[in-house]
Amino acid sequence: MIQRLQTVFLAVATLLNLSAYFTPIYDKAMADPQQWIGYGLAISLLIPMAINILAIFLYENRKNQMSWVKRSGLMQVIALGFCAGVMLSMGGIGTYLWDEALGTGLVLLGLIFQILALRNIRKDEELVRSMDRIR
């Protein structure tokens, strides 16, 4: 389980989502007068973290693991949309918004690590299929 590369990628994606809670973009989203933006960002970061942890333990059923990682990626895209919305509501990316851009970058890196995990799960599935054909 731990020795597989996709497990590491999913764990790193989870840690990146967790670290996004401690960035200024999250603080700005929670301070927004329309509270649904802050709660939407918080939930859309929490759901992929939970799904990634679940997907780590689904290593025996790769097809099921792939479907859960895809669902997690969809929620990660929604979280990225919330981050981009908060950034644009503050006036875009300027010289004084680098801290907020860092939070958005962490969410984007989480999505990239989920894509890498999905790619490695597919490689494992193809390897198992080719071994079954050889037998």
From TrEMBL:
UniProt entry keywords in alphabetical sequence:
Membrane, Transmembrane, Transmembrane helix
Which residue ranges traverse the bilayer?
Answer: 36-57, 77-98, 104-121
**UniProt-listed InterPro entries:** DUF4293
- The question of whether Membrane is a record keyword is answered with yes
Q: What's the short name of a Pfam family annotated to this entry? A: DUF4293
Per its record, how is this protein called by name?
DUF4293 domain-containing protein
What is the originating organism of this protein?
A: Gracilimonas mengyeensis
Taxonomy of origin reads: Bacteria, Pseudomonadati, Balneolota, Balneolia, Balneolales
